[in-house]
Each structure stands twice: as structure tokens, then as C-alpha cells.
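Batch manifest line 385
LIGAND: alpha-D-galactopyranose
JOB: complex structure
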Amino acid sequence: MDKAELMRDFHRIFGHRPENPLFLFAPGRINIIGEHIDYNGGLVMPMAINFGTYAMISRRDDGVARFASVNFPEIIEVGLQNIKYDAQHGWANYPKGIIYHMMADGHTLGGFDILFSGNIPQGAGLSSSASVEMVMAMAANAMFGLGYSPIEMALLAQKSENQFCGVNCGIMDQFAVGMGKKGHALMLNCDSLEYHLLPLNLGGHTIVVMDTKKSRQLSESAYNQRRGECEEALARLKPIFDVQNLADIAPENMDKVEELLGKGVLLMRARHVISENARVKQGAKLLEKGDVAALGQLLVASHKSLALDYEVSCAELDAIVEAALAHPACIGARMTGAGFGGCAIALVQQDNIDNFAKFVSEKYATKIGHLPEIYPVQSGQAEII
Ligand code: GLA
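JOB STATUS: finished
ARTIFACT:
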């Protein structure tokens, strides 16, 4: 997507040329490892990708905000003083929520027209919503000189998604979208928000996205249910282990955890969280050393734990991971994101990607009945272009 093209779209859709526009990009993300532990105060290792949302914003002087996207037919128009959630506004509630929360922070914003153009499929679990939220935040922040730092924008976007849109997500997606950098994965402590960038030493391997093309219908209610189960497990374990978060419990204490929780769902959820956190720590060390083969094995263990203990995989995700692992060029694969459909990722030898994609597509289609979409991704980053 280049600037001139989005300018033409802007003119066509809004009926006027943008004046002194800003042109921005916010990426989507994959998560290499550390799934369903951001809301348990754990460590996560996401990577911002080279697919995401472009935006062009131009001021208006009448206190009106108009939101349009080349991906959707409608233009949503709201008075800045009158922003509220409206189910009929669909996707536009994400950027509306950002403006609402910036104003709730006490900032004065002017009117604007903003046009989005996204190239991540919606509902695939690559954080298209966090990408739209962050590009809106960056655009308003820069245009109206609001002075938010990228981390503050990520926190505002998470708050908006939780409170304005009613989606109970953790901080991982918005943080990865805002803070991820090209050539790196991000190592984030979701409790303290301390983070550092990890160079992507993938030793001739590429991260390949495998979209099951199954939309994540059940994911929201099941997501909230998992969060609830983790809270319950923590409430029982907290007095004994003196921890603030489920992810703070050391894997050495698993026997004690089992004694306290008994066998059943709470134990399964806790076991996933505790073991996944340990895998992220280990994964960071392996990436630093460039031991990609061992990292690949951790991805496989993570998928197993998500499928069996956390129960957020599904037939499609399991089938695509199994197909990927059956190819000799693949050294690890797992579901990525919330689960129940959406995407998995695989670590694949760079010079074998086409062959891998063909092999996995055929195997998956034979088992599931429809074709997946398989493509390599590179690291990306948010920028004002
Ligand atoms: C979704 C949420 C994130 C995180 C993942 C699971 O993407 O938005 O906060 O919880 O699921 O790791």
C-alpha cells in the first residue's frame, strides 16, 4: 500500500482531497510462544508482523469524526461530543473507543476524516482489532499533539477494547502492535510491563502463518470462562504460595498445586499457565543462543498443553499443526492467539516454504474439507510513514 493509492481512495470515499494528511501503519502480530498467560501475569513472546492496518487522517474543523475503511462499504460519522458504542457501527467501534478514551483522559481533539486499509484477515487471530486501535491512537496522538507514549497508547487501547467494546482481552496484542520492532520478537512481562527486544535468530527458518479459515465463533465466551477458571485457581493457591499471579508459581511446585486443586479443570488450567510461562523463559534463552530446533520443540509442547490442558484448540488447529509437523522442513508448530479457530504458526526452512505450503494445504483439505491459507510472515513495526 503506498501513500498515493490511499490518497486516491480517500478522495473517492470522502469526496475531498486530504489536507496535510498523516499516513501511518500499525502491524498485526503473531505470538511465538506464551499463550493465554498475559492475563495471568505471565511472560509472552509475540512478534509484530509485516501485515497490518494503514491509515490516512486529515483534519476537519466541525467537531465531526468520520471513519471509513477500504475493506468495508460504510462511512461512520459521529460528533466528537457524542461518541458511544453502537453495535450497528461494527468495526468502527474499535477506533471510536480510542477517541472516546482519549477524551475521557481530558484531551481536546478536533474533527477528522480517517481512512483505514487493512491487509490482515479479520477474525484470523492476528490482532486486526489491536492493529486498528493502535493506528487510530497513533494518528490522533500525532495529529492533535496529545503526548501519549507508545506504551500509554497500548494501555489505552486495551482499556478501550475492554470497556468500550466489551472484549476482555489482556495486554499482549496492543503492546506487541505498538512496541514490536523489525528483526525482533518481543519479550514482555505482562505483570510489570517490562520488556526487551529479542533478535530473531531463526537460523535459516521463517515463520509461516497457517490460517485454518475457521472463524473463532466460540472464542469470546470460552475466553472469559478460561479467565474465570484461572482466577478461581489463583484464589485457592494464593494463600499458600504468596503470589500475585498464577504464572508466578514455579513449575517445581506442581505436586503441591495438584494436592491443593485436586484433579480436574482447575488443575489443567493451572498446569498450562505454569508450564507455558516456563516454556517462554526457556524459549527466550534458546532464541538468544540460536537453537531454533529446540525452540521448535517448545512450540510443539505449547500446542499440546493448549489443546489438552487449556482446551482452546479445535479439530482444524490440531489438523493443521499435525500436517505441518509431518513435513521434514518444519521444526515446530502451534496454534497462535486465543484459539478455537484462526491461525497456527510453523517454523519452516526458508528454502522449502512453497513445498511445505502445498503439502500442508493438501493434507489439511483432505482431513477438514476446505483449503487453508498459508503464507510466510516477516517482522514489522508501527510507524508514521
Ligand atoms: C487474545 C487476547 C490476548 C491473549 C491471547 C491469548 O489474542 O487478545 O490478550 O490473551 O488471546 O494468548
